[in-house]
Structures are given as structure tokens and as C-alpha cells.
């Protein structure tokens, strides 16, 4: 009887329109109600099992489902109500529009999130070029940069202390801004996903889904879609190249920091030292991943994703590409007159990348991981509408 009363109250709330605010969230909620009645795509990804646990879709529920969506396109190509049907169900596009709103709603400080959302590619390239010019002028003010002593490396151009003073504030600000946004996101998601605490088994399951990009397999292992209804594993593989390439580059920087402060070994490091091996492997993987994803993004079917999000996506991919390309070029031109200019470009790309991390495509990986954690927690709880 209690379950019937709960269902009645939920139905009345839906009839009164007490669901969400905002056009993107409202449209996503409309489509979720249609999908909840159909359930043909229930086994495709995490979105649909999570959807079936709900009769109404509030703002937190929609943000939760949107960040579970990997935009694989499988449900769009399988849907009998997809455009040009009058119902116009396009879950990947609806969820992409909500995700963009998520980055803005939870951005800290909020004005920076709105600026990057509207002009992601322009902001990224302008920041890169502006920082490169600033570094080059600072380098010129200290004398002729091409007269670097042999064996001094890039510390002969920018001393280690100067680099720390340049990068530490950017890194700390990026970490703080991203942490503040995810903290607010998690706080809103927790009561909407049973409110149960995180467990070790749920964390292990979510980590497995994140590290394997489980939900980019289309729900059947053959892959997702890009420019047509053919299945492809390209997006999953290129995402892996980008993700693990970034981790390898970060690991190279972390190991180099230990070498410098713990072992007293200053850069530059010769091949095949651990920082160099990790950095080169990560740089090549990043280069391949971002170039491939950029090409797929240009060819993507217009019904996949959100066109308004493309500048943000391309801005992030461009910064990752320039970071990896300039890093590899810096290694190859070491000891040549071109090294100072390439160093300025590389440092500017890294600084611009970290300055924009909390507001663009990188944030989606963190928000998605948080959503998957809450999904794995919610799966272990009794269904909201189960009889007592």
C-alpha cells in the first residue's frame, strides 16, 4: 500500500509539471519519460538501468543521467521514436546539452565557466598564444636566449624556481576550482541516488568502468557510432590513447619532481631515463589520441551530441595536441637554436591547458566518474518502488 501511495504521489507530481527547470533539463526529462515507457535500450549502458529506478526526473536526476551518458549513439540508432518521428527522441543529444549546462552550473568561479562554454576553442588558442608571447618577451628581457650554455637545457633559459612560481599557482587554482565544482556536484547527486555511502565494492566497479571505458562499446562490444549507423571501436581506442597518454605525461612530471627534490638529479634527463620514457610514450599516445578524436569530431553525425559543445571539445583537444606536439618537439630540438622558442610554446600550452581544465572537456571525465560512483552505489540499494 505504501508503494502504491508513493507511485500516486509521483504521478501527481508529473501531472503538475513539478520536474525540472531549464529547457535542456526539461527536454531531457521528457525524453526519459518516453524511454521509461519503452525500455528497448535497457541493456545498452548505465543510463537506462538508472532511469528505470525513477518515475520523475528532477534536476539532480537529469544531471546524474546526463553524466552517465557516454554519447555512444547506440540508443539513437536503435530508437523507433528518433527523428523524424514526432516524439523526436534523441537521448545522446539531449544529454550532451545537459552536460554542457552541468559544467557551467558547477563551475567555480561561475563566470569563467560561462566564458569557456561559449568560446572554448577561441579562448584556448588566445590563451596559448598570449602566454607564449609573454614568455618569449620575458625570455628576451634576460638576454639572447640562443646563447644557452651547453648542457644547461631549458633551465638555462628559465630557472627552476621561475618555472615553479609560474606553474604552481595555475596548478593549485585548477585543482581548487575543479575540486569545488565536483564537491557541489557530488553533494547534489548523493540524495538523488539513494543517499547511501560509498563502498569499496562500488568504487572497484566504477573504477573498472572508467579505466576500460566500458560504456563506449555500444552495449554489445562492437563499439559505438560516429558518422553513420556503423559500429566502430575507434572512439574507444582513441579515448584510451588520450586518457592514458595524459596519465603517462603526468607520471613523467611527477617522477621528474621526485628526481629533482629527493634524489637531487636536475633536468634535462637523458634517454632512457624513466621521466623521458614516460614522457615520450605519453606524448606520442596523446598526439595520436587527440588527432584521431579531432578527425572523428569533424565527421560526427549532426544528430550525435550537441553542436554548441563542439568549440569546447575542440579547444580542449587542441590544447592537448599542442602540449604533446610541443613537448616532443622540445625533446627533438634540444641543443639547437630553435629550443627557446619551442620551450615558450610548450610552457604556454601546458599553462593554458591547466588553466582551462575545470571548465571544459576534462571536467566531463571527473563528473562522469563521480556519476558512475553514485550509480554503482545506487545499484546496491533496494529500488525506490520495490514493495517493503
TrEMBL record:
<dbReference type="InterPro" id="IPR012830">
    <property type="entry name" value="Citrate_utilization_prot_B"/>
</dbReference>
<feature type="transmembrane region" description="Helical">
    <location>
        <begin position="274"/>
        <end position="296"/>
    </location>
</feature>
<feature type="transmembrane region" description="Helical">
    <location>
        <begin position="152"/>
        <end position="178"/>
    </location>
</feature>
<feature type="transmembrane region" description="Helical">
    <location>
        <begin position="338"/>
        <end position="359"/>
    </location>
</feature>
<keyword id="KW-1133">Transmembrane helix</keyword>
<feature type="transmembrane region" description="Helical">
    <location>
        <begin position="243"/>
        <end position="262"/>
    </location>
</feature>
<keyword id="KW-0812">Transmembrane</keyword>
<feature type="transmembrane region" description="Helical">
    <location>
        <begin position="316"/>
        <end position="332"/>
    </location>
</feature>
<keyword id="KW-0472">Membrane</keyword>
<protein>
    <submittedName>
        <fullName>Tricarballylate utilization 4Fe-4S protein TcuB</fullName>
    </submittedName>
</protein>
<feature type="transmembrane region" description="Helical">
    <location>
        <begin position="121"/>
        <end position="140"/>
    </location>
</feature>
<dbReference type="InterPro" id="IPR036197">
    <property type="entry name" value="NarG-like_sf"/>
</dbReference>
